[in-house]
Amino acid sequence: MIKTQNVIITLAASAHVFTAILVMIGAILMFGESLWGGSPKRLRIYGTVLIVFGALTYLLAGWWYVLYYSADKAIITGGEMAWAHTLVMETKEHIFISGFWFAIVLGIFGYFATEEQLNNPYYRKTIALLSIMLVLGVLLLEGMGGIIIAGLKLGLGGV
Amino acid sequence: MDEETIKFTQISALFSLILISIANTLITIGKELSEDFKNFFVAITGHHWTGHGVVILILFIVFMALGFVLVKRDIILKKDMDIYKLALIAIIIMAIVDAMIPLSLLVL
To answer: Do A98 and B24 touch (CB under 8 A)?
Structure first.
């Protein structure tokens, strides 16, 4: 029973990586729509994706971090790649909060996009700029997550 | 929602994003420097990161409401302001304040 519970908790925690990728896909679609498309309806869908999956990522990752990360932290800091926590995770914790709000703000832009705004090249450029920065931000966080997992693996004695 | 209200909402969201990014960095550094300051966030929800998240959520709403009033009254935030420039400013400020955390960890 306890083992099954552990599997469920680990899968639920790992799901934040997947939901973050959905946020990134939403931002990529928004980037394309702002440059080459012109449908406020599609932008509203992408904006909703960003807000919903951004919030889900935030809650899943936050829940796992607060309740379960301390065990991983002890293993990482006791291993060869202690900096995976002391530098990478310490930075990730911080960027994650501002990154979440960045996704929400871009979601607001997409959700409220109008035909008139899409006729304005400055508005299109704004969405394109914010979208590409969000994509880069998610990639950065995913990469940092990979480094933290590598630190954990080494801490557990893996290669 | 009319065009003007939508524009005000978007400008105030960017304005709030700039301010909460700065607040996020100040809170993170403050928690590292002062145990009392950190305990304040622990007291809110039981863990300093959830307390931190709740404070940032409240600040985002407050700053967005403030930004909306400012842009509506044409104070600091202008009704006809270039939204692209504001987005660019937000990204530059976010990059600087977020980079301060890994830099401080490397230097200190």
So the answer is: yes
Any domain includes B49: no
Instruction: Identify whether the C-beta of residue B16 lies closer than 8 Å to the C-beta of residue B64.
Output: yes
CB-CB neighbors (< 8 A) of B29 in chain A: none
Q: How far apart are CA A37 and CA A31, in angstroms?
A: 9
Nearest to B82 among A93, A112, A122 (CB): A122
Q: Look at chain B and report how many structural domains it folds into.
A: 1
Q: How far is CA B55 from the centre of its chain?
A: 11
Please name the residues in contact with A64: beta carbons below 8 A apart, sequence gap of 6 or more.
A9, A12, A13, A16
Residue boundaries of the structural domains of chain A: 2-155
Three-class secondary structure of residue B92 per DSSP: helix
Task: Count CA atoms closer than 13 A to A20's CA, side-chain side.
Answer: 26
- The tens digit of pLDDT for each residue in A67-94 reads 999 999 999 999 999 999 999 999 999 9
* Residue A1, number of CB atoms within 10 A of its CB: 5
Q: Could you tell me which CATH class the domain A2-155 is placed in? A: mainly alpha
- The pLDDT confidence band at residue B80, using thresholds 50, 70 and 90, is confident
Residues of B whose CB is below 8 A from A123: 83-84
Dihedral angle sign, alpha carbons of residues A78, A82, A87, A89: negative
Residue B7 lies in a domain: yes
Dist. CA A132–CA A74, nearest whole Å: 35
Instruction: Determine, for residues A93 and B49 on separate chains, whether the beta-carbon distance falls below 8 Å.
Output: yes
From the list B1, B17, B97, which residue is nearest A112 (CB)?
B1
Query: What ipTM goes with this model?
Result: 0.94
